Amino acid sequence: MSVPLKLMIVDDSRMIRKAISRIFDNIDNVEVVGEAGNGAHALDMLPKLNPDVVTLDVNMPVMDGLTALKHIMIKSPTPVVMISTLTKEGSAVTFDALKYGALDFVHKPSRTQKVSIREQEENIVKKVRLASRVEIENIRILRTPTGAKRDAPKNIECTKIFVMGAAEGGYGSLLKIIPLLSPNIPAAYFVLLYSDTPQVDAFARYLSANSSISVKRAVKGDYVKGGVCYLISGSEYIRLEPAGRGYTLQVEESPFSERRLALNVLMFSVAKMMKNHSAGIILSGSGNDGAEGVRMIARAGGAVAVQTPKNCLCQEMPRAAMANYPVEHIVSDANMAKFISSCF
User: Fold this and answer.
1) Is the pLDDT reported for residue 147 higher than 50?
2) Domain tally for the chain?
3) 46: domain range?
4) Which of 90, 136, 144, 159 falls 20 to 30 Å from 104 in CA-CA distance?
């Protein structure tokens, strides 16, 4: 018989703690080993209980969830899933939590949500199970650059294009990469994220405020510049169009809304235009989009890397790429910015 997954629940509401605990009453191989009413209490209990996963609220007395999260990730790295009324997709609080090391997030179960309570509970179980499989490391808390953009060089020539693709678990991975990229590198970064367009818009704004390089949404007709990160929704097909000595972006809506093909389309275009000055990076996510794309980039002479699967919330995209092409560079998200710098 397998060892049960040990879960600790942290929330200042006893009613919510019991509600979350009840979700796992009839779930095989999951044991709720402890409950805490605030972050300070959780930090005291953590070394004694040694849970596999912690669910963490945000608003709590004594010590709030984000403060507790920072301490957990520095002192006793443990997979954390945020469960709060504040952690909805696209919110700054959610992005803060992912930046500080949380693996995933979910809104507290509520009858005001669009899906049923049962579906919400099943989603919580799924997220806890996925989080339990991730190997995490001590993280360095990323601090928002102060005045970095003001001093960053302007009009950098684009000599290389990096294409990064992500889906489930991608927010957290990208938050360990984009803020660490140097604005002095003569490269452009295309980041395709499978998420709804409003959430990609919000993520672009958040990254822009927390990164040294310029971050913006990809817009049709944009001239590709070095030192700029272009965020792209998975519902958008992007291609490069020659323009003078460089390229502009051609953007159109995906004609296949049910299929994930946008990353392959983008990588094919970049490989064709940039040849050995292209690079493809596959991060956490489900499905196999990008697997053909990185092979095309490799054939053109470009560099290819995938996020270490054991550090991914969802391993399907990296493993699909590895199955389709003998990827030489398998890199943790925490070291991916260093890998990018090493390509110059």
Assistant:
1) no
2) 2
3) 5-132
4) 144
Mean pLDDT, rounded, for 19-34: 95
pLDDT band of 142, cuts 50, 70, 90: low
Cα gap 305→321, rounded to integer Å: 9
Distances from the Cα of 95 to the Cα of 7, 100, 199, 202, 266, angstroms: 23, 9, 11, 10, 26
**pTM of the entire structure?**
0.92
d(C-alpha 232, C-alpha 186), whole Å: 20
Q: Is 130 left (phi over 0), alpha (psi -120 to 50) or beta?
A: alpha
The mean predicted confidence, pLDDT, of the chain is 93
Q: Are residues 185 and 305 in the same domain?
A: yes
Is 316 part of a structural domain of the chain?
Answer: yes
**Average pLDDT value for residue range 299-319:** 97
Continuous H helices in 191-315: 197-209, 262-274, 291-299
203 and 247 fall within a common domain: yes
Residues 38 and 164 occupy one common structural domain: no
Q: Are 58 and 93 in contact (CB under 8 A)?
A: yes
pLDDT in tens, 64-89: 999 999 999 999 999 999 999 988 88
